[in-house]
Q: What sequence folds into this?
């Protein structure tokens, strides 16, 4: 097949989001074959291809402006994450690191109950368990929408943790989040002290 014909679908898939090897092996192979052309195509619009062959995913990321160059308008939008969604991402990232350390299977599957149990440790206590679970479901749906979890077919309460989470929640992101958590804890402690005074 002509490379020009194969390039279009690869670029469209990357502009739409993350391309996974397991989701479309033909498109993945086309990306591997044409990755230099994809990089050349994306470079003038300040996008760079991040390709992890071992983990089986690829995506486009905005490249920072070079020294002395004007900033190119953002094509790939950044999204602010709520505290519970950020917390779920951190918890899943830590679980993925533990899972990888044990070896074995390549797919990490977690249940809604496992995520809820871990989240309860960090969220304010609630007398209404049903409302808490509804909120957790809302946060889980956001994580699915962001592409870090995938609901297993026929098992609504089971989720596969997508390995791309490792690329987005890196050591720097975890450090920044830890610092925010510390400031939240300090703020909560000062509010508690004011309430006692």
A:
């Amino acid at each position: 097949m002509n490379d020009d014909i194969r390039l279009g679908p690869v670029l469209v898939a990357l502009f739409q989001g993350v391309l996974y090897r397991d989701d479309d092996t033909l498109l993945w192979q086309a990306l591997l074959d044409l990755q230099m052309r994809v990089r050349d195509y994306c470079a003038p619009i300040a996008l760079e291809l991040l390709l992890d062959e071992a983990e089986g995913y690829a995506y486009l990321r905005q490249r920072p402006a070079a020294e002395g160059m004007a900033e190119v308008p953002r094509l790939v939008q950044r999204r602010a994450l709520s505290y519970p969604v950020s917390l779920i991402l951190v918890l899943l990232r830590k679980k993925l690191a533990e899972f990888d350390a044990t070896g074995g299977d390549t797919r990490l599957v977690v249940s809604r109950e496992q995520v809820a149990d871990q989240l309860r440790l960090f969220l304010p206590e609630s007398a209404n368990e049903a409302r808490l679970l509804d909120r957790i479901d809302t946060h889980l749906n956001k994580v699915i929408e962001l592409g870090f979890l995938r609901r297993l077919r026929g098992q609504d309460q089971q989720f596969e943790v997508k390995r791309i989470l490792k690329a987005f929640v890196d050591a720097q992101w975890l450090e920044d989040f830890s610092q925010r958590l510390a400031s939240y804890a300090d703020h909560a402690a000062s509010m508690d002290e004011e309430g006692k005074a």
Q: What stands out?
A: The chain has a mean pLDDT of 82.
